[in-house]
Amino acid sequence: MTAILFASFFLIVTFLPHVLGLSDIPYFQKMNVSQEEYTKTFNVYVKRMREKDYSSSYEKNYFLTFTHSGDSDVFIHSTRQLDFRMRIGSRAKVERATLRFLVSGGECSHLQFYQLRGAKKIHLETIRPHQELLPQWTSIEVIPDHNRINILIDAPKCRIFSPAVHVLLKRGPKRTPRAAHQRTDCSTNIYYSSAKKQRCCRHKMEVVFKELPGYEFIVQPYRFDAGYCKGGCPYRYNPANHHASLQSLIWRQKKGGAPKPCCAPSKLEQLEIIHIDEDDPNKLKMTTWSDMKVLECACF
Predict the structure, then answer these.
(1) Are strands 228-230 and 263-276 parallel, antiparallel or unpaired?
(2) Which of 83, 138, 141, 74 is closest to 116 using CA atoms?
(3) What is the distance between the alpha carbons of residues 284 and 275, in angstroms, rounded to a whole number?
């Protein structure tokens, strides 16, 4: 297993910079992006995402920042609670909420973060900062909420500056026309999902870059549905082109005359990403990654 992971990481390091047009893979451990740089880049990202909409009546992306109600400079002897009050609106769709802060302290060894939701205390993450990199801007993902986010921090001998919650959301009416990619989506079409021998369709595949070795330098999106194609391709079923239709016919008449058509992506979409600058860990960059999201599937 170790050999497989090493080989996979080697391929990423070798080919990913070329695919994204980078000089090298950014070293995410040294990331030290300020609130100003983070906010500026995300506002540009939101603007670009809005420009992709075809109608002003569609949902629009928004990027909001909320500061906590107490002091901006927090010295933690044992535990401390941070309270972020927000007025987002119940109709808004919160896609992501991120807590960011500057951590310092010569004896700061670890920080544990919990989110308080009613009577529940949910552990979010434990951070062990590298002393040689302090002070350092750090971030963790929190559970989205429309009204209030309460964070409990256990971080002895640590100092936290300027804690803020950044929220990425969508507002506005949803698209009423049926999206084109839903035509072959397994989850929205009972014909694809209920058949004993499932036919070629698009399945969901959630990707969290932070959890993939070699991809941790990607800041946004935190997670997205990349999708994949799977299922059978019976005779004359959803051919991708005229050749696929002909191949299906030959396969049916002469089993050895041609291979059975295979289920594969027929339409893909580019992905806008925010990532650490490979030349400066204090900066962020935006890059367009082509053919990263499967929209439709067909038989080839």
Answers:
(1) unpaired
(2) 83
(3) 6
pLDDT of residue 16: 75
Q: How far is CA 89 from CA 82, 146, 169, in A?
A: 21, 6, 11
In whole angstroms, give the CA distance from residue 150 to residue 152: 7
> In what helix (H) or strand (E) does residue 46 lie, and over which residues does it extend?
helix 35-51
CA dihedral 291, 295, 296, 300 (to 10 degrees): 10
pLDDT of amino acid 10? 55
Q: Which two tokens stand for residue 275?
A: 């990532």
pLDDT of residue 54: 52
Residues of the chain with pLDDT under 50: 177, 180
Per-residue pLDDT at 107 = 86
DSSP 240: S
**Which residue from 268, 274, 272, 265 is spatially nearest to 289, judged by alpha carbons?**
272
3 state SS of 76 = strand
DSSP assignment of 51-62 equals HT-S-TTS-EEE
DSSP secondary structure letters along 94-139: EEEEEEEEEEE-TT---EEEEEEETTEEEEEEEE---GGG-SEEEE
